[in-house]
Structures are given as C-alpha cells and as structure tokens.
Amino acid sequence: MTVQTEKDWKDIIHRCFRCGYCKFTHDYSDFNCPSYNKFRFETYSTGGRLWLAFGAINGDIEWSEGLANVLYACPTCGNCMENCRFDKFNFMLVDFIEAARAEANKQGFCPENQKFLLERTTNETYFNPYAEKNSDNEDLKKQFDLPDEAEWVYFIGCTSNYRQKNLRDATLRFLKKAGVDFTLIDEHCCTSPLLRTGQLSPVKDFMNYNIQKIKEAGASKVITSCAGCYRTLKNDFAKHDAEHDLEIIHTSELILQLLKEEKLKFNSEFNKTVTYHDPCHLGRHSGLYEEPREVYKKIPGLELKEMKRNRENAWCCGAGGGVKIGYPDWSIEISKERLEEAQETGATIISSTCPFCRTNLSDANKAFDMGFEVLDLVEIIDQLDYEVIKE
Amino acid sequence: MHFPMNNEKILSDLEEIVGKDFASNKKEELFIYSLDPGASLPREVDYVVMPKSVEEVQKVVQLANKEGIPIVPMGGGLTLSGLVLPVHGGIVLDMKRMDNIIEINEMSKYALIEAGVTTGHLLSYLNENYPNLQPPVPDAPSAATVAGNVLIHGSGYLSQKYGDHGAMINGLEVVLPNGDICKIGSCSLSDYWFTRGPIPDLIGLFTSSFGTLGIVTKLSVKLYYKPKFRDVVFGLAANFDEIPNILSKVTESGLAEDVLLGMQDKPDWMKGYIFVIVYVTGESKDEIDANTKILKKIYRKTNARYMKTPPRIREIYMEKPIFAATAADFRKGGGFEYVGAFLPIENLPEAFRGGAEISKKYGIVPTIGSRLIGQTHSIMVFFTYSFNRADPDDMENARNALHETNLLALELGGIPWKAELAGQKLILDKMDPNFKKLFKSIRDTLDPNHIMNPGNWEVE
Questions:
Q1: Mean per-residue pLDDT for B72-80?
Q2: What ipTM goes with this model?
Q3: Are B329 and A67 an interchain contact pair (Cβ–Cβ within 8 Å)?
Q4: Right CATH number for B229-318 from 3.40.1190.20, 2.60.120.10, 3.30.70.3450, 1.20.200.10?
Q5: Distance (Å, rounded) from C-alpha B404 to C-alpha B364?
C-alpha cells in the first residue's frame, strides 16, 4: 500500500491512536522528535499532525495558515516511523505528513518560505532550489576529463553542486581515482525539497527528465554523495510513477565495496577522533547505518566515537523537510543539540554522508562557535594518500 | 458555565506567566486538546497552557480563580475516558514541561519528580542509573506521566505484590484551588519524601478526584528492588469458575510479582480459554526454574494447564510495558476504550461471562483482561472495546457498550476505574449520600469558585 492516491492516505490516517511512542527514542530516555521537543504542545507530535490532518479532511477543523504551519514545522526525520508501534502503517507516517502538506498546498496554505523552493526550482534559469544558474556540468566534465557516455552517472545534487563544492570535487576525484566509468548529466533538482514540502505539480516531469538524461548517457548505475538524492532516486521516484531500472548507489556503499574487495588501500593515517552523524535520508529513510561506519572504521588512525543517539535513534540535524528554509533559526538550534551531543564523545570532527547535514551542522557550528571541524566522509578520504587497484 | 473563547486579555495574562510560546488559543491547539484517544465526544477548550514551575502553576490558578475560568490539569492525556477534556471549557494545563527527576533516594527507595515526568522517562532513567531499582509502570504507553498514573489510582507492574499505584505515593506538592502551595506527606515536615504517614493521610484527597481538588506539581513515588531475573509463566484455564481459586493458590505461593489474565476470541486458537500470566522473579536462572516448577504444579492442582510460552508471545509479555494500545488497530480504526473495573475476585467469572456477552451484543470481538492488585484483595478487569475513529456510529456503539459494562461492574459490586462522565454519574447514583455530602463539602471548601475540572464528580 502506498500513499499515492488521495484515497489511500485519507483512508488510513485516522488509525493513529496518538499513544505518543512517536515522540521518544527506543528506550524512552529522551524525546527524539525535534518538533515536539521544541514546541511541546501535543499538536506538534506526529500524532497531533495526523489528527489535525484527519480533522481537516473530515471538516472538523478548517484548513488554515496556522494548521499548515503545524504540518510544516517538522523536519520529517522519520523518528516517528521508527518508534510508532503500529507496524501496519508506521512506515508511512512521513508519507502521511508529506501528503497532508500537499493537501494544505492544494488548499492554498503552503507557507511563504517553502513556496520559494517551487518558484526557484521551476525557474528555467535555475532548476534548483538555491536560485543558482543551472550548471549543465559540461565544465566539470572537461575539468575531470569525463566522457559523454558511461556505465555510471554521478548525480551531484543541488546542495553539493551549488553549496558544498568541496564535497562534490572530493567525490569527483575519488571516482576518477577509483577508475569508475562515469559521467555527469545536465541534472535538474531530484525533487526532494518539493516532495518534502508537498509541492508536487512539477515532480513527475523533473523525475522523468533526470531519468531520460541518465539513459541518454548510457548509464545503468547512478552514484550520489547526497543522502537526499539517494532516498529520492531510490525510493520516491517509483512512488510517483517515475519507474526506472537504474541501480542507485551511495558513495559510502561504493567505498565500502572497494575496501571489502581490497581494492582501496590507504597509505596514510587520519589520526583524529570522529563522530558520525546519521543523515535521516540515508539512515531511517533508506536503512543504511552500518555501511558508512564500516568505512570510517577501516580508515587507519581514525577513531570513531558514537554519539548517545545513533543509528535508528539519531537526533536529526534539523535541515530536512523544508525546515532549513522555513524555520532557519530553529533549524540550527536542532543542529546545535546534535553538536552538543557530539561534544560528549570527545570527537573533534563531526562527519556525515549528506551535504545538507554538512551544511546545517556547519551553520550551527559557526553560529554557536562550537569548534568542530565538519567534514563529509568523502572529504576525509580526500585528505588521505590512497590508491585504488583497478581491474 | 462556559468561558468565552479567544479572550485576548486572558491569553496575554497567561503568556505573561508561562511565556509566549507556551500559552495558546490557536485553533490547532484547541482542536487537538478537545479530543482524547478514547470514545468521548470532543469538548471545547479555550486555552492550552504549559507551565514550567510550581510558581507558574500557582499564578495560572490565581488568574483562573480571579476570572472564574475552569482549569483542567493534564498529564499524558491517555486515560481514554475524557478526564482531561474540559466539560465547561477553560484552560487545559498540560504539565509535561515540568519534567525534572529531582532525586532518587536509593536507600529509602523513592523518586522525587515533577508532575510532567513520563513513565517511560523514569523507567529509562532508572534502568540507566539505578539498574537495581524499578518504578511502578502502568500498562499505558510510556508517554503517560507518572503523576497521571498514580493520581488516577492506576495499576500495572508490581501491583500484585505491592498494591495499586495510588498506594505508592509517598508525598505530594499540590497547588490548591486558592493558589496555596501545599506539601502533603512526610515532606510537610521533613526533607525526606519517604512516607505518607503517620499524620492525617490527605494524599487520598488527590487520588481519583481527577484534578477537582488541586493540581499536583511534584510527587514522591516508591521504588522497588529489581530482582536480577524475571520470566513469565503461562497457564490456561477452560473453566471460568476455577479462576478465583487459581489466583488464590498462585498468590499464596508468594512467587508472583504480577498476575494478569487475558481472554479474547481472536485469533481462533485463543477462544474459550482464560490465560493466566504469572511473572516470576529470582536472583538466578535456577531460582526462576524452581519457581516455574512450583507454578506448574499449582496449575495442575487447580485444573489449569501449563502452557509453554512461544518465543514471540514471551517477547511481547517480557517488554515493560507491553504494547497494550495494540487494541486500537483491531478494527483498523485507531480507537479503543475500556471499562477498567475494580472487582471483588469472587465475582470475576461472572464479569468475564457478562463482558463477553456485552461485546457480542455490540458486535465487538470479546477482549477482556485482568490485573491482580494486592494479591487477591481486588482485581482490575478491563473490558476493551475497539472502534473505528472515522465512523461516528461505531464510536457511539463503543460508548454504549462501555455504559452497559459500567452497569455490569456496579451490579457485581465493583467500581468502574477512572470513569468517564456517564460512568461517574452511575457511581454517584449508587454512592452513600453521606459520602457524597462529605466530598461536596470538601470540594466547596477548597474550591468555592468551582474552577477545578468542573463537571467531573459533580454531586447534585
């Protein structure tokens, strides 16, 4: 069952009992829902949101700006899905929230800040939510001597391409060094920001455009260093009838595979203590928890320390679900809490596998002067002397 | 009496007390707090307020008194019987920002906590920091508050051995309806919140009175030693009439930490049996095995049958608390409510039979459970009715079944627990007039303006 059709989600949403498990970690030691933790009214729990949406569908409460604000004040981190005990529908809770946002949007109540995401992404000069001139990536192809056609496409993602270029370039260098037969496409936004904020009108066209471009490049595999793009390409395209047979791979998966095959050899050490922040898109939404950890553990000299809340219980960085653009101050407050937790580990580096997490953790690190170095896994590897044995 | 909606002056006064972010009369908050997960119809709320300290509670109460606004304290909001839905509008005081665990006294074995601490949080805190201690844990979801549980005369884990959870209160800090902050129990004269006597025991005034006499802001609850090993031993009984005797023999053995009963017609293999679920504890695996052996013998001698526990079932029952809210999805409808009635144990067979009949009459699969409280001194029987929240007729059907069950419980000499408004009325109708007179005079004395959760326990 999916929440594709209006009927589906509207037929299920009332099954939430509002028991409150969605607010907690697995062991109840803390409230792990960033929204409930901040606002504290029951309204801001996942149960509260579902009951509001059900009330609005039923006509018991009118759609309004205030109601929409409650729906949108959630980074859709998925903690609720992990802790809700109703296994017949708990895996759909974030889908419900996104569907309710789409309904709010249809009723004319999309919050102003989130509207920018749609306006910018559908602007033909940009095709990205950052209002940056669209890069067709031809310059990068020249710079890295990439072919027009290849087995793999590196789907860079808007955040890496326009905000985290160091991460992008580190990934490009790694893929080149690893001898991966890859190219780049004139990619448009993967649609993650639009899906998360219920602005669905152009989504299918964007998805099909990207699939077409990947196919035109002759690729059967797509690798991405962005957890958001990974989740969207892997899980959401099919939900929106943009079917494809592409293999979607996160960079951490490729790196681990190379390490396991003993093709990747490190010739230097990274003598620092690192704590790993699970990106929600990669962890709770895609189930990749151990792959990045295994890579960190295989880097010589690197000491990996876990934060108290990790894996399924990880505290969100606060960037997702439209929160970064909609509630910028709150968004970095959420990251601040993560950095405080990271401080308890004694690590000097907080590392992630998502450019959006990297951005928000960096913003909080700077705003609150927390003194961390924030690096993506690929950026750490980029600092090392390594070799890849090619076939 | 119903207080006018959206009075901006009052909102601004409330914001002044608790801060702008924690007082609301926004439609979204009012909507959510007008509903609870049970079968009650929605009831209007005018303000939702989340205090952080006893002083803030005091000021809210003083304001409510001055303005004549009803005030309803709320914990986890999980009674299912609408006790935190205001009958006459007013302020819902959501206590969950008062969430500090103030002290764990390891030697005298109590936890001093604020009223908004959840049962999950206290359990987790003890597991991590005091693994040899365990708190009273209700069968409710872990978002229930400790205060909410003990103040509604709750029961749950440890109730067989040590009594109902209301009896585990050592002391209270209460904001009285006039705004006085009052300490009750040993804390009224000592730094130790270790006992409720030997002084006049006024703690009882605040249990099961549903916030009509004051707002509890702080409390001490008893903690108990946690044995190193714990297991569950299942028995099956086909004859309802044997149950009181089985329970007597099990409790007389002194081996049971907790005893539950369960009966449901679905899945089919469960039909026709009552499951006796006994928790045994010990300091070693050998002790558990020895205790299990004795229980098997007791089952045999009382015409019950020992049931080897399938791993999946064991896993469900070893979780603390078990996920009792699973009943909410029985009809794919997100709702259930139950009559939890305290009964004399000798009337248990009739209660099970009568409850099953009521369920069948209302087209609901019979699902009845019990928890022994204080050995066989009483037993709490829960008659559960699942419903579809999206279907108003189905919800009304559940309400009717609940009402009929309340009548059954009263007929059998029992008392419906945390009863909804209709159930409260049935109880009051049957109650000794002088009990009612006493309660009313206490209430009128403490709360002359009748602002504390009016509409509940209303003596005509």
A1: 97
A2: 0.95
A3: no
A4: 3.30.70.3450
A5: 13
